[in-house]
């Protein structure tokens, strides 16, 4: 079994990739299928990794809706034809930044100094 820090670093790696893939702006992102696919895949992997984090550590970040992230993973995997790219854009702009701060804080709590 891997420890929480491994999954947290993996989540940060996905977040960094998402940030890179949306850096050029909304219109640019919405016009590029390859980048949309990359963001969707990283959101899926990120969500799967959150499921591996211990409950005790998740409790240190009560403002993060961990169950919604887990449920979102199921939408990405099983309801991919119904994905709304405007909603995905909103997630990258409104949810990812707070998740990034939470993950960095969790790593700090674990005493990890390496923030991918």
Key terms for this structure?
116 residues; mainly alpha; 0% strand; globular
Return residue spans where pLDDT drops below 50 for at least 5 consecutive residues: none
Please indicate the percent range of residues in DSSP E strands (runs of 2 or more): under 5%
- Count up the domains: 1
Instruction: State the order of secondary-structure elements, H for helix, E for strand.
Output: HHHHHHH
Q: How many alpha or pi helices?
A: 7
SSE-based structural type: mainly alpha
Overview of this protein structure:
This protein is mostly helical and 116 residues long. The protein has one domain (4-109). It has helices spanning 4-22, 26-30, 33-50, 55-58, 66-78, 85-94, 96-109. The longest helix has 19 residues, at 4-22. It is globular.
List the helices and strands and how they pair.
Layout: H1 4-22, H2 26-30, H3 33-50, H4 55-58, H5 66-78, H6 85-94, H7 96-109
Explain briefly what this protein structure is.
This protein has 116 residues and is mainly alpha-helical. 72% of the residues lie in helices and 0% in strands. It has one domain.
């Amino acid at each position: 079994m891997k420890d929480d820090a491994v999954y947290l670093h993996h989540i940060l790696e996905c977040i960094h990739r998402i940030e890179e893939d949306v850096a050029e702006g909304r219109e640019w992102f919405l016009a590029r299928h390859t980048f949309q696919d990359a963001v969707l895949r990283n959101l899926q992997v990120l969500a799967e990794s959150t499921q591996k984090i211990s409950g005790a550590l998740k409790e240190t970040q009560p403002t993060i809706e961990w169950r919604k992230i887990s449920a979102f993973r199921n939408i990405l995997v099983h309801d991919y034809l119904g994905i709304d790219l405007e909603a995905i854009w909103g997630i990258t702009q409104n949810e990812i930044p707070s998740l990034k701060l939470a993950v960095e804080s969790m790593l700090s709590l674990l005493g990890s100094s390496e923030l991918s």
